[in-house]
Design brief:
With 201 residues, this protein is of the alpha+beta class. It has one domain: Protein kinase-like fold. The protein has eight helices and eight strands, in the order αββββααββββααααα.
Length: 201
Amino acid sequence: SVVLQECHVQNTAREYAKLYAAEAEPLEGFGEVPEIIPIFLIHRPANNIPYATVEEELVGEFVKYSVKDGKEVNFLRRDSEAGQKCCTFQHWVYEKTNGNLLVTDLQGVGMKLTDVGIATLAKGYKGFKGNCSFSFIEQFRALHQCNEYCEMLGLKSLRTTHQKQRKATSTKSKNLPNASTVKKMVPKKAREPRDFISSEH
């Protein structure tokens, strides 16, 4: 059932988050690590819907820290500590599983996350199949930008395969008079949102 799968996915992601925390917490300057809250399956035989899930209620501003389809640029993902640490968590899991598994839909309040998803390659990973499309893994690979937390954990940059594309984009922009015009024209198509996000800081 969907409910059962939801439990399985979130609790699997939670195990990865615990391993990530164990590796990241001891690092000097890393600080607090995001956690995925547990989700429990309850059986209510007398009810129309016999199975339900129960989890801790999160109070506060609910934020999505990872994009589902890569079409939107989520500022909170880049500009908040929790957002950056979530991106690093995704990168860490991706590297640990040799690119076979990715925790997606990281969302929650502060460092407490819930309702996450998992994408795996078609064959699954270690007998586990995710509930999200494999395309999320491809998108992550193309869109992820390493931050200081990725560096602290010594994660390898995923950018190398995209170097060629970057060169192609930069040659086009040389014909435009100045940087501010580029900003106005590029956002919709930009492969590298970094260019216009940096203006926020």
